[in-house]
């Protein structure tokens, strides 16, 4: 491509009043003509903020990306975008995934950007940035923020999320005092970076790598390593090349790429949230990925990454064992090796020599964590459009189970009553009003707490069913993403205390043992709850959000293209 063909040339190159203004304002930025004219503009979309501890190093890291862009003859411009983050954002960061996706798309389209570096990693930021880039269809490379260091407490390695849930249960069972609890507070998250278990963050940055949107090996590099700095600079250099030569997301993200991503998520024992995000991303690319694609793959693909919550290790161990390329080496026969990536080589390039360094972390095919994948898609009269369970993280006795329902109307009701309700270890805890519209935003409330009385008896798992999601760092027999959700009148809305519910993971069935005519009667007397929002983004979200089985995108955001390039003059 010649410099005159760069997209940004329309802003800078013409002998027009507008181009004059763009050049004059670049001088105002302190950039001389020879520093940028004729060079590609690389946007650095940064999700840094002081309320996103996972991304706290990204302000510095953006400087490393800029260094790479300058080195390769580009003009770097840092563009802050919404710092969607799990820890502080309420009611749930998921409410804002689609807003960040929209912002990403519009920032890329409305500014003179030829290629972009996307910087994120905390759960929703990865799918959001990628969804926006797909729809804008400008060349991008993703810089994963990297996992934080393993947690540390009295010589034990702690995993973010997973060990928080575990020790919180111990504390509620009366086994952990104030002093120990305060020490865990200081030790569980002790460096920049995203959660270092195989939660949603690690799963989705690995997905970005498998899709071919990062440099090879980038996803697992711990945030604080020098290698992470070098990867950031190298991604900046790559972005300049992408601006000149492509490919665009539409040339990389075909059906094969998404199928490989599904396969990898299962081999990673990855987060249930990946189901929602990958369906949304694929449909932006025009690929009709469905829940059944996950279930089919789950029957073929063994879980090989022995990383918490489904396994024993943490992301640093996974990185030292070889990271995503080593995992892909183990499942190369299940992948499409000849598809393109953003780094100019085919996906399978070099995989043959990426034998894992540690078989206890990335297990051999004949010694998997679990012989079949970690996800099952359930259907039945309680979830006509599907539900998801990560059965590898559940107690096996619950995978075929019938028990009486104990129903909670939303999370606040759950918190109020969970320690008072009449339950046995066989009861089925049901949470409704926690879906995409009703939650709102489908919060991570799906790992319902075990009632304190049962915890004290040593019970650590029960069958739980909801239209919520759960954190990728959670575990237990939690049936999630029940669709349609109760808020729109899905059968979950009709369950009553004491109704028997049967889960049969092997048969992929979830059944409410109530006769059809009784359910019809209940349905006729059901009244829809009032809207959660009357104005603003919440109302837009509520009016347009798709159900979990469709990826929870906004109905008018599906696909890419269709939006005109802006007039510059
Ligand atoms: Fe950011 Fe877990 S809180 S990845
Ligand atoms: Mg999470």
UniProtKB/TrEMBL annotation:
Pfam families: ILV_EDD_C, ILVD_EDD_N. Residues 361-552 form the Dihydroxy-acid/6-phosphogluconate dehydratase C-terminal domain. Keywords: 2Fe-2S, Amino-acid biosynthesis, Branched-chain amino acid biosynthesis, Iron, Iron-sulfur, Lyase, Metal-binding. Residues 39-345 form the Dihydroxy-acid/6-phosphogluconate dehydratase N-terminal domain. It comes from the Bacteria. PANTHER family: DIHYDROXY-ACID DEHYDRATASE, HYPOTHETICAL DIHYDROXYACID DEHYDRATASE (EUROFUNG)-RELATED. Belongs to the IlvD/Edd family. This is Dihydroxy-acid dehydratase. The gene is ilvD_1.
